[in-house]
Amino acid sequence: MGSTETKLKSLALSMGADLIGVTSKDILADGPPSADPRYLLPSAKSVISFAVSLDKDIAKDFINKKKWLPHCHNRKAIAQTLYTIGDALVEQLRSEGYKAVNVDLNNNYRPEEGAADVTEMTKFHPDFSHRYAALAAGIGRLGWSGNLLTREYGALVELGSVLTSAALTPDTPISDKEHPCDKCKMCSLVCPVGMIRPRASTQVTVAGVTETISNKRPNTCCWIGCTGYEGLATSRTWSNWSPYRLGRPLPEDRQDFDALCISLQKADPQMQAADNYFSNYRQAVFDPDWFYYTVCGFCRSVCAPQREERLANRKLIIDSGTAALKLDGSHEVADENACEVQTPYGLRVVVAHEELSKGPAKTRKWPGQFPLDREVIKYLCQQLNSADARDCATD
Ligand code: SF4
Ligand code: SF4
């Protein structure tokens, strides 16, 4: 191993990286377009990929609906760590005369024909794929879910990448024999919107490795589930942390999915704000007032390294009940009296019955408030005297 690689790896590990590896532009050349580092750095020769693990106990409390906020805070802290590690690697490489770019962690998508902004996007191809880099650099392999799975932490990691003009010595991908995914399909079973088909498969090749993964539903399907426009599983007995319901079955057809997602995004108050976090993810992550609203990611959180733990995690999810919104902006587990109320945003919202029977309430500021929650709470407060809000629109 050359001294530059050693120095960079030690630096990242000393700053909190749990896993780190190196790959090259040439090794990534057989991958999909988002595996090409030259899109962001034309002179790129190498990629340094690194991972930080999420807190497993906090994630457990999240999936069984004991505690919502700690996992949101944990994700934000880890995003800050990843940016900070990437910046240090870039600084080190530049000090040695190389070009280097710290790839944005999230929400940087390649332009799509006919899409004026993110609300009109349907494919969501990233500028550069952290997952493909991590696979090529030997950090993990792609699981059935399409998530990056590590041997050490399962899928419970967040990834960062630095692109550089330096020619670094690459690591090798994990062999098929050591592949961390055993196709248990727990990821399919805990996706409330059925994004990860349990049987239909497709293949993707990167770094000379061919992965057989789920042939997933359109990306707009996950966008609907992960953003929280629909949180309820088809069994109707459990949900992710989203209190929102579409009130109708999800479409089957890709075009219908895309049209639905676009219409929901257009109506979403968060997407109307000029400074929403899609415009500058890094800035949001370091803003002390920004709340990392996380309601899903169950496909990742279920995926522990050991199969027994995955089975147990799945049980935690399906036994965890459904989520409801409180008028202070917090989310809680709904009881049998919770109501579904139509909102002006194309969605119904589940609210605890006592919240609606209390009478008119002032909007209470709670640090976790999210733009959609905030507007819905304002609406509910205005409606509290009317029959509309008190009529439980339960099916
Ligand atoms: S939950 Fe099971 S099938 Fe899904 S990615 Fe993880 S190990 Fe693979
Ligand atoms: S993040 Fe949630 S909605 Fe998206 S694929 Fe995973 S489980 Fe499904």
Describe the SSE topology.
Layout lengths: L2 H12 L4 E6 L21 E8 L2 H8 L5 H27 L4 E3 L27 H7 L4 E2 L5 E2 L7 E8 L21 H4 L11 E6 L2 E6 L4 H9 L16 E2 L8 H14 L1 H4 L8 H6 L11 H4 L5 H12 L4 E3 L5 E3 L5 E4 L5 E4 L1 H5 L13 H13 L3 H4 L5
Antiparallel strand pairs: 1-2, 2-6, 3-6, 4-5, 7-8, 9-13, 10-11, 12-13
Helix pairs in contact: 2-3, 6-7
The protein binds iron/sulfur cluster (SF4) (2 copies).
The site of one iron/sulfur cluster (SF4) has 11 residues, from helix 6 and helix 10.
What are the segments in which pLDDT stays under 50 over at least 5 consecutive residues? none
Strand order of the largest sheet: 1-2-6-3
- Could you give the order of the helices and strands? HEEHHEHEEEHEEHEHHHHHEEEEHHH
Largest sheet: 4 strands, antiparallel
Secondary structure tally, helices = 14
Number of strands: 13
Question: What's the N-to-C terminus distance?
Answer: 63 Å
Share of β-strand residues:
5-15%
Summarize the structure.
With 395 residues, the chain is α+β, with helices and mostly antiparallel strands. The protein contains 14 helices and 13 strands. The model has no long low-confidence stretch (mean pLDDT 91).
Defining key terms:
14 helices, alpha+beta, 395 residues, four-stranded antiparallel β-sheet, three-stranded antiparallel β-sheet, binds iron/sulfur cluster
Structural features, described:
By secondary structure, this protein is α+β, with helices and mostly antiparallel strands. It folds into two domains: about 325 residues, no CATH class; about 70 residues, no CATH class. A four-stranded antiparallel sheet has the order 1-2-6-3, with helices on both faces. A hairpin with a 5-residue loop joins strand 10 and strand 11. It is globular, with a radius of gyration of 22 Å. The N and C termini lie far apart (about 65 Å). The structure holds iron/sulfur cluster (2 copies). The site of one iron/sulfur cluster has 11 residues, from helix 6 and helix 10.
